[in-house]
Specification:
Layout: E1 2-5, E2 9-13, E3 24-29, E4 37-43, E5 49-54, E6 65-70, E7 75-80, E8 82-86, E9 92-99, E10 105-112, E11 115-118, E12 140-144, E13 156-161, E14 164-167, E15 176-182, E16 188-193, E17 198-203, E18 208-210, E19 219-225, E20 231-237, E21 240-247, E22 250-253, E23 259-261, E24 274-280, E25 283-290, E26 293-296, E27 302-308, E28 314-320, E29 323-330, E30 333-336, E31 344-350, E32 355-361, E33 368-373
């Protein structure tokens, strides 16, 4: 196993006792009746999966996709939209388009036990509204455009808590805001970009804290939040990306002069392990950052580490000497996960209990899959 350090040169070799090779089985997550395509977005500890069934080129036409939850291979349709997130109870966060002509208008809701409750901000304006995560208490962070503001990028942020929406005090409009991350403590995280500055922030139910920056970053992109309120993401610095870990009141630039954290709810685990990609000698390689060091996962080509669970297992993909593959890295041992014959699948999520999800690439009608790891 190789360790990488700035500027991504091999510094030393560290050997660990390899774990036994993992085993895995795979099932296809079928589209809802009458729909040709399926896409998986998130998986919980019970192996329940949220996502959507769709017709080709679903964006941005309404009624061209339907949110679904898979309890096994067969889906439960939840209504129009995409099931972008799921919590341990099986509640699904749904995002959908409710207008096509003119500016795009998005809506959100939470499906629970057969009922969908609206979670669109009360004063949602024109343009795009974004969301991704839902915690076990039903807290949902969102970013949206306020009344009278029409832009592709949201300029307001808020959160639903206990059925009530509260806007975050982030200042005047005219900025660009992202706010999608929440943990089971109820902490949320995001970033704000104005014409003069950019910064990441973290919020409790009562206050928001501006997080420190690194170097001369022009943009920040928080990607995941763990149960200790550590935030993993990346910053845009002088034409390149730098992976960043915010822990407490400090910001640490992770090793690698050009690197990004995966856009996934499990891109960071409870131990502070972070996954993504790192540019090593011109190749974008999958990487795990652990204890301030970048661990080369032993892949041979271009790829990305997608998610890491609390056990330290990593799922990702690479396209190297042996062609395209999906891998599981466990304690120094790399295992190739099975794929359906004739189909290439990229992973999209991983649970602590050993369920992974993925979606096909290169097919006119996308297909969704779930692995069970042991």
């Amino acid at each position: 196993m190789r360790w990488l350090s700035i500027p991504t040169a091999i510094a030393t070799l560290v050997f660990i006792t390899p774990a036994a090779h993992a085993t895995a089985s795979i099932i296809e997550l079928m589209p809802a009746y009458g729909w040709p395509a399926a896409q998986a977005s998130a998986v919980n500890e019970a192996g329940l999966v949220s996502g959507m069934s769709a017709s080709p080129n679903p964006f941005p036409r309404p009624s061209s996709n339907t949110a679904v939850r898979w309890d096994g291979p067969d889906p439960t349709p939840l209504g129009s939209g995409n099931g972008v997130g799921i919590n341990s109870q099986g509640d699904v966060l749904v995002h959908w388009v409710r207008k096509v002509a003119g500016p795009l208008i998005s809506s959100m809701g939470v499906w629970s036990n057969g009922t969908t409750t609206r979670r669109t901000p009360p004063e949602n304006g024109l343009g795009v509204a974004t969301t991704r995560d839902i915690n076990d208490a039903g807290v949902v962070p969102v970013a949206y455009n306020g009344p009278g503001y029409d832009d592709y990028y949201p300029d307001h942020a808020g959160a639903w808590r206990n059925g009530t929406f509260a806007q975050l005090p982030l200042g005047d409009t005219g900025s660009r805001v992202v706010h999608r991350l929440v943990n089971n403590r109820g902490t949320t995280a995001g970033a704000r970009h104005t014409g003069e500055e950019s910064y990441a922030f973290r919020c409790s139910s009562t206050r928001c804290t501006r997080l420190p920056g690194i170097d001369e970053a022009s943009f920040y992109y928080p990607m995941a939040l763990n149960e200790s309120d550590a935030v993993a993401g990346h910053a845009y610095v002088a034409g390149k990306y730098r992976a960043v870990l915010w822990s407490g009141d400090s910001a640490t630039a992770l090793p690698g002069e050009d690197a990004q954290v995966s856009d996934n709810v499990h891109a960071i685990n409870r131990h502070g392990d972070v996954v993504g990609w790192l540019n090593h000698s011109g190749t974008r390689k999958p990487v795990l950052w652990r204890d301030g060091k970048a661990i080369d996962l032993g892949t041979s080509g271009f790829g990305e580490a997608i998610a890491v669970n609390d056990r330290g297992d990593v799922v990702g993909w690479d396209n190297g000497n042996d062609g395209f593959r999906v891998f599981l890295w466990r304690a120094g041992t790399l295992t190739t996960l099975p794929q359906p014959e004739g189909v290439l699948v990229k992973p999209a999520g991983l649970s602590n209990s050993g369920f992974a999800i993925g979606n096909s690439i290169g097919l006119p009608d996308p297909r969704a899959f779930r692995w069970t790891l042991s």
